TrEMBL record:
Chain segments annotated as transmembrane: 12-34, 40-61, 68-86, 98-117
Taxonomic source organism: Actinoplanes lobatus
Alphabetical UniProt keywords: Membrane, Transmembrane, Transmembrane helix
UniProt protein name: Uncharacterized protein
Superkingdom of source: Bacteria
């Protein structure tokens, strides 16, 4: 840690807070599993899979532009959560409503992904030159 401006110590304390939030969320999740009759063996298997995948995943998605990855993952999250929400006791939507929502997602998600990829390709060179200029300025300031 540095004593001059405290930036590094601030980032360390932020990392500790993020870690504590993740631990608290995980403990809450595990505590909630006890009342759902979910086998602890399956939970441990999923946990092991996550531990194995965690260091590999960033390497695998490195070539994917962040906005494209965000649109892809966001669409998947919307799709799975829409299914769960529409089948829940809280909403209990009819088959027609559920199929309508899934159809809308099936149309909007690929369109959003296509738009995101098109915009990425359109501005890719501009983004690279902006990053190169920023790196050059940072190197000039450092020297």
């Amino acid at each position: 840690m540095t004593a001059d401006d405290g930036r590094e110590s601030m980032s360390i304390s932020l990392s500790i807070r993020e870690f504590l939030v993740a631990v608290a969320a995980s403990l809450g999740f595990l505590a909630g599993l006890g009342s759902e009759n979910i086998s602890l063996v399956w939970v441990l298997r999923l946990l092991l899979g996550g531990v194995i995948a965690a260091p590999i995943a960033p390497w695998l998605v490195r070539p994917i532009p962040p906005r494209v990855a965000g649109t892809t993952v966001g669409g998947l999250i919307i799709l799975t959560n829409a299914r769960s929400l529409l089948r829940s006791d809280w909403i209990d939507a009819s088959d027609g409503v559920r199929y309508g929502f899934h159809l809308a997602i099936a149309v909007v998600w690929p369109a959003a992904l296509t738009y995101t990829v098109r915009e990425y390709r359109l501005h890719r060179d501009e983004d690279r030159s902006a990053v190169a200029e920023a790196e050059d300025r940072a190197a000039a300031v450092a020297s």
